[in-house]
Design brief:
five-stranded mixed beta sheet, coiled coil, 27% strand, WD repeat-containing protein 65, single chain, alpha+beta, Methylamine Dehydrogenase, Chain H, 15 helices, WD40/YVTN_repeat-like_dom_sf, 1280 residues
Length: 1280
Amino acid sequence: MTTLNLASPVHLQIQTIFGVRSQLDSCLFFCDEHTVIYPAGNQFILANVETKGQRIFRCIELEHIDCIIVHSNAAIIAIVASGMNPDKENTTISFYDLHTTIGKRKRMFELRDTSMTITSMAFSHDAKHLAILDCGNREYTLSLWLWQKSRLAASIKLGQTEGVTVLSQVLFHPSDNNLLSIIGRRFCRFIRHLDGNLRIQSSSAKLDQYDFISHAWYDSNRFIAGTSNGHVCVLFNGDVQTEIDVVEFRERSIPPIQRAVSINSSLGKSISRSGFYPNQQENLDTLRSTGEEVTSISVVNKGFFCLVGGKRLCLFSKIADSWDFAKAREYVIPSNEIGTARSSTISYLSSSQILHDKQQQQQPLNNTHSMWKVVVSPKEEHVLVLTNKQQIYSVSDMAKDQSAESKEPFLLELIFNSYHQLSIRGLDIAIQKPLFISSGDDHTVRLWNYETNTIEQMKIYNEPVYAITMHPSGHQIVVAFASKVSLMNVLIDGFATVKEYPIHAAHQVKFSNGGHLFAVIDANIIQIMSPVYLKVIHRLNHGQTVKKILWTKNDLALYSQSSNYFVIWDLENQKKIFELKPTYRLDGGFIADREDKIVYLASDDGFIRAFHNGQLNHEAQLPQDDKPSCLEIYPSNGALLCGTHRGSIYVLKTPLAKILTGIFHYLAHSARITQIVVAFHEALIISCCEDGILMLWETHIKSSTKSEDWTSVVLHNKARFIHLSQTIEALQIEEHELKRNQEYRLHQMETTYLADLQRRTDMSVNERRHHENLIEHQIIEKENEQKDFEIKHADLQEKYENEKQRIEEEDRENLGRELQKEGDLIRLAQKIMEDNESRLKSTIEASENEIRDIAEYFTGKIRETENELTALRKKTRQALESNEIEKKNLETDVDDEQLKIKLEFEMERRHLIETNAKLQKQFKETHEYQAHILNVKQAEQEATAQTVKKRIQDNVLRVQGMSEEISSLKNEINERKQTITEKVDRINDLELKNQELEKFQYVLKYKIDELTRLIKPREQEIERMRNQLLEMASEREKKENELSRNRFHNVEQKRTLHAVDTQVEHERQKRKEYDNAMRRIKNDILVHFADINDPKRVKNAVAYLYEKHVQNDNVKNIYITADVSGGLSEEILAQDRQRLFLERTTSDLKRKLNSDLHTTKANRMRIMNENALLLQELNNLRQELKIIRGRTQDYEIAKKTFDERGVHSIDALVQTLNADAGNYVVRHRNSELVKEVQKNQQEILRLRQHLSRVQAGYSPSSMDTNIDDETANISILKLV
């Protein structure tokens, strides 16, 4: 697909193309039953009409293409291109395979060593022969080629001797390779290939009234031909057998209309595009477009399709047992021009808006949409139509017949997406959604999904769209129209306008990287606006017409560029950080790297220069004298993507180098690339051009780093692995719960915030209504004052007009006098020249020597008169300039200026009279002297006599030019008078705006006083809540001290329990004589007390042991008898009593510890809840205080900056005051939410660390008192 070098930093591969190449009118063909081929840019697309998939192969001939033709059965495409060799103008033809190895060139050879204009091409049925009909120098040439051998089989010249005037199309016989049919204006013949020659077969048919422009073979004996006046003829052996009129309700007596210029042939160009030579236009002098021509015919089973005037597609069916055809169906393009695109939501303007716009202007888009070509698949399952607006439609409902009652035609449907029809100007991509948006000169805005390759939304407007940008979230867009800039929300079913700004012809808009601001170019002003507050934040004066802007990565600075001026702006200070004024033009755009350290500038000389800290570091020049049109950078490796005027894309390594080793070329579009964007994940690049084509590129980065070798984790045993997995699952569950709690808290905070915001908005709405009433009252007063002013202004205007007319009449009289004087001078000069000529003739008759001398004399005299005329012209110009200056000052002092003008004219008249008298005296004095010199210079004047006459003619022409200059000066005077009136109107408007600003100042003072009254009670309430918070903090300290004392008491109890356990163990060691009995008891305990957490099981085990060991008589004897040999000793009984006592004390301590834990936890929870409520209320009060302070600050700032922002209307003031009401809330909401999220993340991290320590067997850290108490309880249970 590209001229790929393996060292390229970014490998581009085309993924999807949206659009059809617009320079070819017959470029749609079927490769097989379900695959259609058409060019797009410098690529061919093989699209499946069923699955909508695309296969793309690149073709270098598309850059110089003239025409194409495809043979469906053989899957071969032939491409004719001219100018492939830059050294000479030759015409070549290439053949590509479309079946086995797609895009493989099978053969290429040269048709002619000069350029040629091809009219038609045709393949034979077995794809072995190729017929080419070309036009040149009043005649046509028909060539028959054996393309597989690159050999010319035969050729023939067709001119006026054969009765040829204009030819349209050539076709092969459907079964005979040696028979061809050719048609044209009043021409239809068969040509036979025989013995290496082409011979025209004779015909006796009279075809004077037919102008054939298209035809197709119906069977082996007949073919169907269409004419330029809406007739379809069935021809048998060259004679018209049946004639069908495809134009309904037309009288038969209308004579046939001459052939139209727009003719479609079997190749990719019509005569209107083929470019006849000038000497061929005499054959086309009578050609007119009638709108009824049959431009394309495709034969189907028992019928045929034909295009009528490019507006209708008609299907004619054959009537049984005859060669007549009847119209079965009729198809037209949908009135909305777009049809129903698949998986798309298309919205249009309302009917009232459309009706209003049609009354004002006729939209050219709806009037020029016509069909170019109809193609049918080999098995006739699909019928497609190509239009001049780069759309591909399909014929649907083939099985449904059109009823006789319903005369409404069927509508064509789009087979693929709806493509752009004209140049694409705007392109941008979202970050959080797989969406990108485009706009162009076809008045449409289209929202695309690059994952599904479909249009999500589209809307048509009544004016061109100059630029567009999308919010990073994909929920908002900014659209720049010819008359306004609109901020819109992206909805499910269309685009909703939020705010419109009166900015005309903004050629670029750009959202910031964070989406909180967007910049708009307004001629030489850059306006920074907020999509939240809906107002202008900054205005930056670039000084020249800005062409491109770009945000820095941190949105704190802005780049701007004009033709020869580059600036970096600091938005906080609104000052210029850096500026550059090069000698070359910056027409190729610019881009900055991801660290905003290096800026790359592209100029019209083909160079790309890198600037670092204002210094030129590197530069590189594009090859083949190509000029850049746009720049984009690949963020990951810093590679530059450069689009050019020829449609190519270059990938440049950074840093730049002068040699061409780091530049990699990709053939992409066929026209100038307007924009290139890179997706955030860097796996997709989108480019667009002036041809209306969008290309989606896949990217593959060539990285030089190797992947690291990671050491595998060794698991010691299975039990540890299972334990770790269980621990991880538990932690994940806990993390999920914490996230849910966090989301709940965030949702709760958001609901409270929205409720508060709604309350405040209601307050602001009420205030706004109050202000609106005041403003309405002021407007009424203003209207009354305006009426009085208009009456006075009308009186003054009448006086001014009368005075102006009087002055203009006087100026006209003065100019007429001046012109009359100038005419007298010209006539005097002519008289002098006539006298000189008469004297010259007399001297010639007397003597040849005398004639030469007189000629020399008069040449010198003419030169002097020329100098005098130039001096007079300069003086007249100076007089006119002085008149202009005087006219400007007529308003201030009319009487003085009139006197000055009269004096100047009198001085000028006197000066001209004196100069005339001097000339006459000089002429008389020099005449006698020159008579003697003429005899001496006789020989030299023979050659100059001829030049004298030419110079005299030049002087006459100069005089005519002077008269034209006088007329242009009059026009300039009228234009300057108009500018004077416009400036007077501007002064009146500024005075009115000054009055409005004084009223706004009064409104602002009232708002500031009201806000100061609201702040005082809020501060008192905040102070009271602060004291309450201090009391709660002291109470919390008391509770914490009590908890520490309880913890110390618990530790003492633990120590006593530990001492008792040691004593019991010591006593048990002494009982060696009872080891056997105690071992059995231990075994029973181990068996029945394995799980102590189950109380029921423990109870059953105790009952079983009691029955076994206590109720047994033998055991009782051991404990009861006093005999040493039969029972136990008193020491053993004492030990048992001690053991029972210790067990009771242990159970009492456990109950007490549990009760203390419950009471402590309840007290802590109560304190925490109270603290949380108080803190929340305190934060709310603080937030309200901040909001009120922020509002006061905003109103003070607004008061100072009304003049800077240009708020000159009452509506703008109200909108600004209401929008600023919630600025502070929105400004601080994000920071508070971020702090809350960070606090929750720290809590989750702490709990994870605690769980890991517990699972590892370490003692838990004293981070939380709850965890300490629970772990202490667990240790006591272990001891028990």
